[in-house]
């Protein structure tokens, strides 16, 4: 335990095949400890040296820029620091920079001792000309680092820029501190890096400073900072899994949960993870239901065998040439039983796998039924004479967590699908986060492309490239493929999502395989944000402005249902003397709320709840304003069911029909009917009849198409697609 009068110093010598380091540190400045390695004082060619009444600094790592940064760190932290390093610089700078920072962190932890009577927390801002950095330090004994410097150059002197944040991470790991360093702005990489080191120096000096009147007190609600809360070093090469293991000897069920830290860059590199285990008495549900599948996300070795390492708390890789089920079967075999051969073990594993599949299928069928009984049985319980209304999939039990079923169709035949329990589907797609893909039909396509792009960004941020793979290949072929398969199994993919997927795959394929993962993911996320702003947000603004400018005084506008582009255009045009007639969808009364919003804005509105008086409503109109969910290359408009009826009558009355559509919804496909690309309303789908959600209007009924690229005819879709490819 260090007191204000006890010197907080440490000295060490770290010799490896890569580097030979001698280091002495005094946190409070002044003299060095008496056990300092003699080789340290023989070095007289220090790149950065300074001696004053309170500090002595002498640094010679062989990398001039690293000496410069450590000099700034020691000076502003108030340390006396001496470092001499002989590293394998003929290879590169990695070993030298990393080992020096590890040695410095180790010496700092040794010199600090138990953090008693200190402030523990420290934060600081440090400017250097145009650059400004912020650092936050916690002497928590929990190694964690989040570093964001935004360096763009390849080298700073003889130090590669990728090693600068790695130096912070190595120091934090060895010193067992929590460290956050962010460069807020600046365009000179030298200034950005130096301001970051200076900010960390001031913050760590503040954290290690003694607090008057708190002598002997531990700055923690736990009462100690010396014990590890999580033994991270013992959790290397772990596997993400959650499964129950019934222990017949004790009558308990052991639940093992091992998960890597997905949002921590420095922990991702070393694949540290935390392990949580707890015991519980087995219940009927545990014994009757099959064990959930093991999800292997990222490991350094092969996938562990089922049951291997459960009692020890760590997973072990499979041995080469051994069947997958062999370790589990061998472990489960009682003593004295005849040992099975490899072929017999493999056959037994296949039989167990088939049995688990049948059991899982039975459980899934029972869950889809809802109460475990058949439909015929339910009808026999006093409901034979009453027709039950089908509940939409988003209202089914379990739909909140992405497990609900969905009745849907695509093509000329109906298909009823239930979203699979997809082990590789990310939480931002399955609905366990707020950024899930919506299934509500009234908002099915208006925000689906935007939400899908944002979910892709979340997946990329939490992605870690497995050992031996490259981001540009593994991310597309494995990770995104699983997410896309999950979404298409839940519901047919809209055209904007298809275009976004093709664009994202193209951007991933352009990534250099030598680019660091952090830079690659940052570039992809920035590209996705730009894509959303340009192709969705700004496109909507331009379309709304163009459509609003087309309206003049004394116009009578007829619109169908509700679409956010049409509503925003009409609201933008308020102040002019025009009237709106809203013909609502007879099945989905979305136009009523649309009429209420327009009326509240002071726009005269007439509302018709169905298509019965369509010709009468159109006789006094001057134009028809509709929104397209997609545009085919032959000029056909894909929109809400009923749009074609309005366009047909409007053409007979010689009215102008204007369709609003973003270019992200343009497709190279051709459609000549309303059955090839469509969906069935799951709420109105029975053996007698069903309702399609969309229809197709041919180009001859469309007078003009308004996009963010301007006004054009429906026949101009191929030209617009070619222009988009050039952009």
Automatic annotation (TrEMBL):
InterPro entries: IF-2B-related, IF_2B-like_C, IGPD_sf, ImidazoleglycerolP_deHydtase, ImidazoleglycerP_deHydtase_CS, NagB/RpiA_transferase-like, Ribosomal_Su5_D2-typ_SF. PANTHER family: IMIDAZOLEGLYCEROL-PHOSPHATE DEHYDRATASE, IMIDAZOLEGLYCEROL-PHOSPHATE DEHYDRATASE HIS7. This is Imidazoleglycerol-phosphate dehydratase. One of its GO terms (molecular function) is imidazoleglycerol-phosphate dehydratase activity. It holds the Pfam family IF-2B. Keywords: Amino-acid biosynthesis, Histidine biosynthesis, Initiation factor, Lyase, Protein biosynthesis. It comes from the Eukaryota. It catalyses: D-erythro-1-(imidazol-4-yl)glycerol 3-phosphate = 3-(imidazol-4-yl)-2-oxopropyl phosphate + H2O. Its EC number is 4.2.1.19. Pathway: Amino-acid biosynthesis; L-histidine biosynthesis; L-histidine from 5-phospho-alpha-D-ribose 1-diphosphate: step 6/9. Residues 336-352 have a biased composition (Basic and acidic residues). Belongs to the imidazoleglycerol-phosphate dehydratase family.
């Amino acid at each position: 335990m260090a007191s204000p009068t006890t010197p907080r110093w440490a000295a060490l010598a770290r010799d490896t095949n890569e580097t030979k380091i001698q280091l002495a540190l005094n946190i409070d400045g002044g003299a060095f400890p008496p056990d300092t390695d003699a080789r340290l004082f023989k070095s007289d060619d220090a790149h950065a040296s300074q001696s004053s009444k309170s500090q002595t600094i002498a640094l010679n790592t062989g990398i001039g820029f690293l000496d410069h940064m450590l000099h700034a760190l020691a000076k502003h932290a108030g340390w006396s620091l001496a470092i001499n390093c002989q590293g394998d610089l003929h290879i590169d700078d990695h070993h030298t920079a990393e080992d020096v920072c590890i040695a410095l962190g180790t010496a700092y932890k040794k010199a600090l001792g138990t953090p008693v009577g200190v402030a523990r927390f420290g934060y600081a801002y440090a400017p250097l000309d145009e650059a400004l950095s912020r650092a936050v330090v916690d002497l928590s004994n929990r190694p964690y680092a989040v570093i964001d410097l935004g360096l763009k150059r390849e080298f700073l002197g003889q130090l590669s820029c990728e090693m600068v944040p790695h130096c912070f991470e190595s120091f934090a790991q060895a010193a067992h501190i929590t460290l956050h360093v962010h460069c807020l702005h600046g365009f000179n990489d030298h200034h950005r890096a130096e301001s970051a080191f200076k900010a960390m120096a001031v913050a760590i000096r503040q954290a290690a400073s003694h607090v008057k009147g708190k002598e002997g007190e531990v700055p923690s609600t736990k009462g100690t900072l010396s014990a590890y809360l999580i033994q991270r070093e013992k959790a290397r090469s772990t596997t993400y899994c959650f499964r129950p293991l019934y222990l017949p000897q004790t009558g308990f069920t052991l639940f093992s949960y091992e998960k890597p830290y997905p949002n921590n860059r420095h922990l991702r590199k070393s694949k540290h993870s935390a392990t949580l285990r707890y015991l519980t008495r087995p219940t009927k549900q545990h014994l009757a239901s099959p064990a959930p599948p093991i999800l292997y996300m990222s490991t350094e070795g092969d996938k562990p065998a089922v049951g291997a390492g459960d009692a020890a708390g760590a997973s072990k890789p499979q041995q080469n040439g051994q069947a997958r089920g062999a370790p589990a079967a061998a472990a489960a075999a009682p003593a004295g039983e005849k040992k099975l051969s490899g072929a017999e073990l493999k056959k037994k594993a296949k039989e167990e796998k088939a049995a688990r599949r049948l059991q899982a299928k039975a459980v899934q069928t029972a869950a889809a039924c809802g109460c475990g009984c058949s439909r015929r049985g339910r009808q026999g319980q006093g409901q034979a004479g009453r027709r039950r209304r089908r509940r939409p999939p988003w209202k089914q039990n379990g739909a909140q967590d992405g497990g609900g079923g969905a009745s849907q169709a695509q093509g000329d035949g109906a298909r009823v699908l239930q979203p699979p329990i997809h082990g590789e589907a990310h939480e931002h797609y399955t609905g366990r986060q707020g950024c899930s893909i919506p299934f509500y039909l009234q908002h099915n396509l208006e925000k689906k492309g935007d939400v899908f792009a944002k979910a892709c960004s979340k997946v990329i941020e939490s992605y870690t490239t497995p050992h031996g793979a490259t981001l540009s290949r593994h991310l597309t072929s494995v990770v995104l493929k699983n997410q896309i398969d999950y979404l298409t199994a839940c519901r047919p993919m809209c055209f904007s999502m298809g275009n976004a997927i093709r664009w994202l795959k193209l951007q991933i394929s352009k990534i250099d395989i030598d680019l660091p993962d952090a830079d690659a993911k940052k570039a992809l996320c920035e590209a996705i944000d730009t894509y959303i702003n340009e192709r969705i947000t700004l496109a909507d603004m331009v379309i709304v402005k163009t459509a609003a400018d087309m309206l003049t005084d004394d116009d009578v506008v007829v619109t169908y249902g509700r679409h956010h582009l049409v509503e925003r255009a009409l609201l933008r045009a308020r102040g002019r003397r025009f009237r709106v007639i809203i013909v609502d969808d007879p099945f989905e009364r979305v136009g009523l709320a649309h009429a209420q919003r327009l009326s509240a804005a002071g726009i005269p509105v007439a509302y018709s709840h169905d298509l019965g008086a369509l010709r009468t409503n159109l006789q006094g109109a001057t134009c028809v304003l509709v929104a397209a969910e997609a545009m085919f290359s032959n000029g056909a408009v894909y929109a809400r069911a009923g749009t074609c009826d309005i366009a047909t009558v409007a053409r007979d009355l010689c009215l102008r029909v204007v369709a609003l559509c973003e270019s992200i919804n343009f497709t190279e496909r051709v459609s000549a009917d309303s059955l090839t690309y469509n969906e069935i309303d799951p709420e109105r789908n029975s053996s007698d009849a069903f309702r399609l959600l969309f229809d197709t209007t041919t180009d001859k009924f469309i007078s003009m198409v308004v996009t963010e690229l301007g006004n054009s005819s429906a026949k101009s879709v191929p030209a617009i697609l070619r222009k988009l490819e050039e952009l």
